[in-house]
Design a protein that fits this description.
about 210 residues; alpha+beta; Arc Repressor Mutant, subunit A; Nonspecific Lipid-transfer Protein, Chain A; two-stranded antiparallel ribbon
Amino acid sequence: MRSYGQYCSVAKALDVVGDRWTLLVIRELLLQKGCRFTDLLHGLPGIATNLLTDRLRQLEEAGLVRREVVGPPVDRTLYHLTDEGRELEPVVIALGRFGARFMASPTGDESFRSHWLAFPVSEFLHDGDPSAPGQTIQLEAGDQSAVVEVDAGAVRSRPGTAGKADLTIRGDAPVVIGTLTGGLTLAQARRLGLRTTGNTRVLQRVQPNAT
């Protein structure tokens, strides 16, 4: 691990997490919780296996990641963030908020994983009708599914599927994100290939946060 050699807290932090891929490893551990090595590889398309091994080792040495060996019937190793590692969550969220402005023009050849929606959805949207009963939106925009839950003034998201969603939306990631955040009207999104099943009025309840 290279050092900036500066007696500054920002430089010290970047000594630990400033290398390429490191904060994305943190992102995956925040979103997926306990991860197998293969889970991390899947969530980090483009990373070499030896580089991921190096990053995990560096994070373990820094006290930000710990490993857990799970015994029979299926022997496996899981990686978890430590309490100190979880302190990076606001940093990753802030980066996601800052980077959202650059997502309006996807290149078309970028990888996407559905569980990445969890940060932007919950950070950039709010419940426009908090007195109404809770509702759920199933998102299908890639390799996996994600769920948006709107209830009591809050919008939360998680990887996975809803038992019974009020609305399911399917399409390319930029179209799904644009529909949720109000960047696209439903009519525009449908012209771009969005497909819906269920009550589309739920989308009127999901409101972008003021910037």
